[in-house]
Every structure is written in structure tokens, then in C-alpha cells.
């Protein structure tokens, strides 16, 4: 029964987009890996068919099994090579076998097919004959691309150099190439297996789809920077960020699932990551104004999504289920937008990468469009001009990935940048208006800054506003420290300078006290007297 329990656990993680199926199987350290992998893989292929059988027979209600355990048991009972367990579990499943077989037979009659394979969705059948290349990211924390290539050549692989076009990624046997866009990614034939290879076990290479490497590659945080990986597990992108930073700086990684975070800690240890600060915490509850994150300038946000871009999780829903699908997409998009808006609240943020492994515009372009409307202080950065698949119009600055055009899983990436980084002082008030309640507030009028005073009292007052605006801000001059991005009043180095500023901002007070004017007059008189005395002495 241990086989089925472990298979159900891995199947659930794979379908919840918690890792690649093969990696989950090999990381389980199950005694008979090949047997486990075959069971999980085949159950996964027939997942939608098995679920229909289980629902039709009301098996869960009668057996109290969980859906993923029921799937692996029903697969082996009806489609596989028979149940490999005994006792009560086998007796229970045998009791329902006749009804389960009857439903399977009716499905074949309805679709006019004779083989179980013919019941598979067209998308699954296509993928059987059109497998993606095996992508490997070289972990530069432990080795170099050159050394990894040399080791692989000595191990019997044949290196063909850097790819020049997409067709170069069609490889056979033990041939491999360097990717044409990402120099740290090596490409092998689909059936190449590295799970037992020394380079993988030692953490010198990471098994990661090329599209999944894009977010960290495009964010490109410099060594020594502070950044956040908002929804970090299982950790491949986190280790990639650490490699780009050369393990210098602070990498805050959040995830709400404690088990996934524990698995991630093991992965990061194997990869040689030392700059991480892991937290079992909901990113939406992280305080952007906490002193701990005052220097965060980069964020990678890869939130929960439908996973519709994953080859093994392609949507296969009937028209009757479309309403449920749309409702789920709307719920996910709402969550993703909240995460994106929250990420833009970090005060020193320069750049944020937003990515999903979804093919749906509701989770991609629609979310980014809504975010930009609500945060006019940020703009899209155009990415990799030579990349073959762009975001849907008008967001062509973004990237998309797909099996057909990029030979990867389906993916989406957008890079948002703060306007003020361009050094335009006139744009700075827009940056401070980056949290409007409604989209309509993005079109700020001259009166609107007063609405935002409670959030950024000093930053707004120093953003190059008219002479009248500072008078509004003077009521709370010390509520927050001066913004480092302020241009006109950045010096403010001494108390005397500050007092002079207050005099300028409070003309009424200056008029009420004529002392400064009298002092200047006396000084001029003394200087004139000294000059006259000097002249008389000369004479």
C-alpha cells in the first residue's frame, strides 16, 4: 500500500503545480523509483478520464478515499497491470470493480473507440509524440558553464556549440547545445535523464525548464542587493536569483506552505545558496514599511496560478465545466492582482518581475493592465527583442512562451519598473500615487495629492510641487524621514538649513518678527563705517 500512498502524494503535488512530476518522484527516495514513476506518470495522463469514472460511480462517497489515492488505485485496477496491494484495500476496490468497468465501457461506446489510449484528450496524445527538450541550468554558485560542458563531454555527451535557431533544439541521443537566449541553460534530447547524474546530485546543475529561468534572468539583481522572492517554493527561481547575485546581499523568500518550504531549504542547501532568509509567511501579510525590508529594490513574483501552461497539466475541460473554469480564473486573477499591488508598495522598489505558468490572458495581460492602471508610477520594460513570442496586444513588451514557438512549457513574464528611476522629477508625484483605491484615481488632478498625504507626507512635498503645496505638508514635517529620491531638497544637511526653510515656508512668521531685517541693516552700517575709517587712515 506504500506504493499507492506515495503515488497519490506525488500526483497531488504535480497537479497542484508544486514541482515537475519526474523531480518529485526522484526526490521521494522511494525504494522502487521506476515502478513509482510509471504509476504516477500513467495515472497523470489518464487523470481526467479516471476522475470522470470516480465521479460517475460515487466512489469517494462509498469508500471515503481521497481523490488522488482513488485515481492511482482505479488506474491500476482498470487500465494498469492490476492492483499491487492486498488486504482490506484490495477487497474494497474489487467490490466496486464491476461498476467501475461498466462506466469505462460506456465511455468507449460513447466516443466510438475500442482502446483506452483513444480516450485520451487530443492535447495529451499530441504531447506523447512531441516531447520538449530536457533543459538544464548550470548552477554558477558551484561551477561554470565551461566546466560543466567539459565534464559532460568527458561523460560521453557530444557538445554542438550554441544554438542559432529554434530547430537546433531538436536533439537526439547524447547531443547537447547551449541555449540561444540563456547562456547558462544547456539543452538535451527529451529522454535524457540526469536524476542519477553526479552533476545533479552535487547541485552543479538544476533541472529547470527554460521558460522558468526567464524571471530571474530578466530581473537580474546585482550582487549585494536586497530582494524578495514572494512565492518562492519549490525554490528553483530562488537558487537562480542567488546565483545571479553571487550569494552576496539578502534574498528574502516567502511561502505559505511549511512542507514546501522545508523541501526548498534542502534544495537550496544542495545548490550552495547562503544568502537566503526563508519565512513561512503569507507575502500579502508582509509589511512593506518594516525596517527589515527598507533596502528591498527587486521583487520576483510568481504567484499561484492555473498551471495551464504546464505540458502535463493542460486544460481539458468540457463546455459544461467552462463556467467553473472561468470562476476559478477570476478568483486567481484577483489574488494575483492583490499580490502585484502589494509588491509595488515597497518604498525603495526599482523593479518587479511578474510571471505565471499560465496561458490565460486573465492571469497575465489582464492582471498587468489592471495593475498599471492602479499604479501609474510604474511602467512596463520591453524584454528580449529577439524572443519569438510576445505578450498579447497591446502589452508586447511582455514575453510569452509555448511548446510551439519556444519549445518550452507555456509561460508569461512581465517586468515593471518605477518611473522615478529615469530621474524625471515631474514624474515623482505619480510614483507616490501608486496605491489608488480605484482606477479612476490614476488620473490625478492638482487637488488629489492632498488625498495621499497620510501615506507619504514628506515624499510628496519634496517631489517638485508648487510653492503652495509645502504649506500643506508643514503640519507634519517629521512624520517620516525625507525620501532619498527627493531632488530639490536633498541637501537639508543642518538644523540651520532646516530653520531657513521653515522661515521661507512661513512668511507670516517672518513679518511678525523684524529682527532678522534689523540685524542685516546693522551689519551693513558697521561695514560702511569700517570702510570710512580705513579711508581716513590712508589719507
Automatic annotation (TrEMBL):
The protein's GO terms of the molecular function aspect are:
RNA binding; RNA methyltransferase activity
Give the keywords, sorted.
Methyltransferase, RNA-binding, S-adenosyl-L-methionine, Transferase
Which InterPro entries does this one have? Answer: MeTrfase_RsmB-F_NOP2_cat, MeTrfase_RsmB-F_NOP2_dom, NSUN5_7_fdxn-like, NSUN5_RCM1_N, RCMT, SAM-dependent_MTases_sf
- Record field: compositional bias (Basic residues): 517-531
Pfam families named in the record: Methyltr_RsmB-F (PF01189), NSUN5_fdxn-like (PF21148), NSUN5_N (PF21153)
Ranges for region Disordered: 465-539
**GO biological process, alphabetically ordered:** rRNA base methylation
Q: Where does S-adenosyl-L-methionine bind?
A: 231-237, 255, 282, 302
Q: Does the keyword Plastid apply?
A: no
Q: Which GO terms describe its cellular component?
A: nucleolus
Ranges for the SAM-dependent MTase RsmB/NOP-type domain?
124-419
Cross-referenced Gene3D superfamilies: Sun protein, domain 3 (3.30.70.1170), Vaccinia Virus protein VP39 (3.40.50.150)
PROSITE patterns, per database record: SAM_MT_RSMB_NOP
Family, per entry? Belongs to the class I-like SAM-binding methyltransferase superfamily. RsmB/NOP family.
Which PANTHER family does this entry report, sorted A to Z?
28S RRNA (CYTOSINE-C(5))-METHYLTRANSFERASE, NOP2 YEAST -RELATED NOL1/NOP2/FMU SUN DOMAIN-CONTAINING
The name this protein goes by in its record:
28S rRNA (Cytosine-C(5))-methyltransferase
Q: Which gene is the coding source of this polypeptide chain? A: nsun5
Amino acid at each position: 500500500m506504500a506504493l499507492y500512498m506515495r503515488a497519490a502524494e506525488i500526483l497531488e503535488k504535480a497537479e497542484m503545480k508544486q514541482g515537475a512530476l519526474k523531480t518529485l518522484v526522484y526526490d521521494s527516495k522511494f525504494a522502487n523509483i521506476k515502478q513509482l514513476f510509471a504509476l504516477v506518470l500513467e495515472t497523470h495522463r489518464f487523470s481526467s478520464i479516471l476522475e470522470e469514472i470516480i465521479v460517475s460511480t460515487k466512489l469517494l462517497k462509498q469508500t471515503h478515499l481521497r481523490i488522488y489515492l482513488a485515481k492511482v488505485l482505479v488506474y491500476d485496477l482498470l487500465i494498469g497491470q492490476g492492483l499491487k496491494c492486498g488486504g482490506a484495500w484490495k477487497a474494497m476496490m474489487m467490490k466496486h470493480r464491476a461498476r467501475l468497468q461498466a462506466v469505462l465501457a460506456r465511455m468507449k461506446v460513447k466516443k466510438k473507440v475500442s482502446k483506452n489510449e483513444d480516450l485520451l484528450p487530443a492535447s495529451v496524445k499530441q504531447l506523447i509524440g512531441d516531447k520538449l527538450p530536457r533543459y538544464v541550468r548550470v548552477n554558477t554558485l558551484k561551477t561554470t558553464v565551461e566546466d560543466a560542458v567539459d565534464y559532460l563531454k568527458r561523460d560521453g555527451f557530444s557538445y554542438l556549440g550554441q544554438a542559432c535557431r529554434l530547430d537546433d533544439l531538436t536533439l537526439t541521443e547524447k547531443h547537447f547545445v547551449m541555449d540561444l537566449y540563456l547562456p547558462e541553460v544547456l539543452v538535451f534530447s527529451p529522454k535524457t535523464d540526469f536524476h542519477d547524474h553526479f552533476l545533479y546530485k552535487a547541485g552543479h546543475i538544476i533541472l529547470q525548464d527554460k521558460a522558468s529561468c526567464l524571471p530571474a534572468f530578466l530581473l537580474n539583481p546585482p550582487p549585494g542587493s536586497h530582494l524578495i522572492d514572494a512565492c518562492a517554493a519549490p525554490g528553483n527561481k530562488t537558487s537562480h536569483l542567488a546565483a545571479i547575485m553571487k550569494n552576496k546581499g539578502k534574498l528574502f523568500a516567502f511561502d505559505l506552505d511549511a512542507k514546501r518550504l522545508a523541501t526548498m531549504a534542502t534544495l537550496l542547501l544542495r545548490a550552495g545558496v547562503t544568502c537566503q532568509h526563508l519565512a513561512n509567511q503569507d507575502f500579502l501579510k508582509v509589511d512593506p514599511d518594516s525596517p527589515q525590508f527598507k533596502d528591498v529594490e527587486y521583487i520576483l513574483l510568481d504567484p499561484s496560478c492555473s498551471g495551464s501552461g504546464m505540458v502535463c497539466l493542460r486544460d481539458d475541460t468540457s463546455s459544461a465545466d467552462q463556467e467553473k473554469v472561468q470562476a476559478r480564473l477570476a478568483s486567481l486573477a484577483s489574488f494575483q492582482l492583490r499580490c502585484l499591488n502589494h509588491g509595488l508598495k515597497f518604498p525603495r522598489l526599482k523593479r518587479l518581475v511578474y510571471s505565471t505558468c499560465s496561458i490565460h490572458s486573465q492571469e497575465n495581460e489582464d492582471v498587468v493592465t489592471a495593475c498599471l492602471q492602479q499604479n501609474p508610477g510604474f511602467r512596463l520594460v520591453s524584454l528580449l527583442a529577439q524572443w519569438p513570442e510576445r505578450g498579447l496586444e497591446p502589452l508586447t513588451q511582455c514575453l510569452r512562451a509555448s511548446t510551439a514557438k519556444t519549445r518550452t512549457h507555456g509561460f508569461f513574464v512581465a517586468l515593471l519598473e518605477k518611473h522615478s528611476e529615469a530621474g524625471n522629477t515631474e514624474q515623482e508625484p505619480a510614483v507616490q500615487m501608486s496605491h489608488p483605491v480605484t482606477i479612476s484615481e490614476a488620473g490625478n488632478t492638482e487637488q488629489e495629492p492632498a488625498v495621499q498625504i497620510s501615506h507619504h507626507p514628506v515624499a510628496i512635498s519634496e517631489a517638485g510641487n508648487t510653492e503652495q503645496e509645502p504649506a500643506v505638508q508643514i503640519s507634519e514635517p517629521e512624520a517620516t524621514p525625507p525620501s532619498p529620491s527627493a531632488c530639490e531638497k536633498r541637501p537639508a544637511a543642518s538644523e540651520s538649513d532646516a530653520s531657513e526653510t521653515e522661515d521661507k515656508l512661513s512668511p507670516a512668521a517672518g513679518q511678525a518678527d523684524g529682527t532678522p531685517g534689523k540685524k542685516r541693516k546693522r551689519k551693513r552700517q558697521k561695514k560702511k563705517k569700517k570702510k570710512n575709517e580705513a579711508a581716513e587712515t590712508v589719507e
